[in-house]
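Appendix C reproduces, verbatim, an entry submitted by the partner laboratory led by Prof. M.T., so that reviewers can inspect both the input and the predicted structure.
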Amino acid sequence: PVPQHWGGEGVTMTNNENLAAVGRDIVLSGRAQLGVALPYLSGPLCALQIAPGDTVTTSAATDGETLYYNAAFLASGFLKSERFSPRLNLHMTLHCLFRHLAKRRGRDATLWDLACDAAVESVIDSLPYACLTQRAAPPKERFLLECRRELKVLSAEGIYRLLLRQRRRAPLLRAVVPVRYGICHFFISLT
């Protein structure tokens, strides 16, 4: 790769290194915004290490110790919304605080991931901070509304049970496909 200059005098980086550095800056920018809005979460927010994860994910992911990011995904999200990075940071941190990774064992991975994303996003959507406020996409809004009709509290466990019941009731009648919304997966019915 042809080296490009980025980051100041005498610093030479390849395109991949440059993009990784920009991704890291985007994550750190979101953490700084959240540190101001939610100072009591500074410890957990900063507990996750940050690492490029182009071989791990096409968006962002965590293993409970590291926040892995696809730099192109972060740059695209950041350009679309200034609220993208704070939401991403809080989303990953809440997965860890709610112990979603540890509770995954023995569950259908696709449904559990959806349930966890929905629970975390419902919490973030309920917070009254400008750095997190964002209009929900219609598939996400419909999905969360359906969950709220059935459940008093939108926990990952409750949403997971609801998804299992729905799948058992009409396994062949509803074709359901995953749809990406930011860093989350939501399902829409094709019928």
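The CA atoms of residues 100 and 116 lie 7 Å apart. Additional entries are available on request from the coordinating office.
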